[in-house]
Design brief:
The chain has 20 helices and no strands. It is mainly α. Helix 6 runs antiparallel to helix 18 and helix 8 crosses helix 17. It is elongated, with a radius of gyration of 40 Å.
């Protein structure tokens, strides 16, 4: 390649705008510099050959120099031809099997897309790369920072009025309702509930929930003792002495309180039964079609009931008005509560490695499944983009990326060719 051609390529690939150098401009400069070096070395060998030949008579040693320069020129020209033939016709001559890349643009695009699909978009590769990322750990650390939690809360809070005003339009509400109904129709409720319960079980949050529920029951019983005593008296026979009623009431309350105390014990039989029942429920929800059908029937009958729709309409209107009023204030309680919830979520995740591990596994599996399922679209995009490029664009982009390294082939060919010529000249002198 000539220096003029290199300069022309550099101009075509130069900065598009402004003083800042683009990546392609930097690559073009490097390619032009290496071309000048390789071409300059070829010209140096040609000059050396001419000088050696002119001064060779009477100076046998210059025969080695001439042999080196001659073979170096042959190697340099051969490698220049090979490198140039990849991207264009050498010297503009339509020599067969040259301009390989422009002539095979469609095949290159197809092969590159297939290579990407088979080697980079497989499930094992994608999942393996995702396994290096601690999604929940990073999220927990990020959310634990008050500034981040506050920023998210404010963004979500500011979006609430927009969503609410959009949903106020009847047509938009109908479309939203239909989309929600369609989405719920495709969701497997039982497996979803099973996953949620398994997250709770992984962190033993279901036991915390049970303890809170037992405390609520115990507090309710204590607050309503007079009411319960009165009910015992009201339902006992009139001829039965009240002292016996009182005794029955005391034994009833003592028995209930003793049962509640037993259930709160960490090693109690009640806890073991509760844990076993929870695990069985999680397994049944994940695998049983009967549970799915029951949940689906309950959801459909509830959502489709006229009274439910009417009641939800009233509730929605009230909630909407309250939300609009709150989110319009600088000290929005929704934003404050959401910020506290995000901080609590970040702290809870940071303290619970078991939940982090399970959530990470689900995120990786979901992301890998989604990417692999869409890989046909991704590789088709690569194929279509390459096909849409004109041959000059494709040639220029490939040459900018690999052309600089290919110039080393020309330089190496010059030097290696010269060494081979020198060796052959020496061997010829022996015979």
């Amino acid at each position: 390649m000539t220096a003029n051609t290199a300069a022309s390529s550099s101009e075509r690939s130069g900065p598009r705008a402004g003083p800042a150098m683009t990546a392609e401009a930097v690559q073009a400069q490097g390619l032009a510099r290496m071309r000048r070096l390789a071409t300059g070395l070829l010209l140096l060998m040609a000059a050396l050959f001419v000088v050696a030949k002119l001064l060779e008579p009477g100076r046998p040693a210059l025969g080695f120099v001439a042999a080196f320069a001659e073979a170096a020129m042959v190697g340099a020209i051969a490698d220049w031809f090979a490198v140039t033939a990849l991207f264009r016709h050498p010297l503009g001559l339509p020599i067969p099997h040259t301009a390989i890349i422009p002539a095979n643009k469609e095949r290159i695009g197809n092969n590159l897309a297939s290579f990407l699909e088979q080697n980079f978009m497989s499930y094992d590769v994608v999942h393996g790369e995702l396994s290096r990322i601690d999604f929940t750990g990073a999220a927990a650390q990020w959310l634990a920072h008050p500034g981040n939690a506050r920023a998210v809360a404010q963004e979500v809070s500011s979006a609430v009025p927009v969503l609410l005003r959009m949903a106020n339009d009847k047509d938009a509400a109908d479309v939203l309702g239909q989309a929600l109904e369609g989405a719920m129709r495709n969701v497997k409720l039982a497996p979803l509930l099973s996953r949620l319960l398994s997250v709770l079980a992984a962190g033993r949050q279901h036991h915390v929930l049970l303890e809170n529920l037992l405390r609520l029951v115990a507090d309710a019983l204590e607050r309503h003792r007079p009411y319960i005593r009165q009910k015992v008296h009201d339902h006992s026979p009139r001829w039965l002495p009240k002292a016996i009623d009182e005794k029955f009431y005391e034994r009833l309350m003592a028995g209930v309180q003793s049962t509640l105390d037993d259930m709160q014990g960490e090693d109690s039989e009640w806890r073991a039964r509760f844990q076993s029942a929870t695990e069985e429920l999680i397994a049944n929800l994940a695998t049983s079609d009967e549970y799915e059908q029951k949940l689906r029937g309950l959801l459909d009958s509830t959502l489709g009931h006229p009274m439910f729709r009417s009641y939800m309409g009233q509730v929605w209107d009230d909630i909407r008005q309250r939300l609009l009023a709150d989110t319009s204030k600088p000290d929005s309680r929704i934003a404050a509560h959401l910020e506290q919830a995000l901080l609590a979520l970040g702290s809870a995740l940071a303290r619970n490695p078991a939940v982090q591990h399970k959530l990470n596994a689900w995120i990786r599996t979901f992301a890998a499944d989604t990417i692999v399922a869409k890989r046909v679209l991704i590789v088709d995009l690569v194929r279509r983009v390459i096909h849409s490029w004109d041959t000059d664009t494709l040639t220029r982009k490939l040459e900018l990326h690999v052309g600089r390294d290919l110039q080393y082939i020309r330089i190496n060919g010059t030097l290696v060719g010269g060494m081979v010529g020198l060796l052959l000249h020496a061997v010829g002198l022996l015979f």
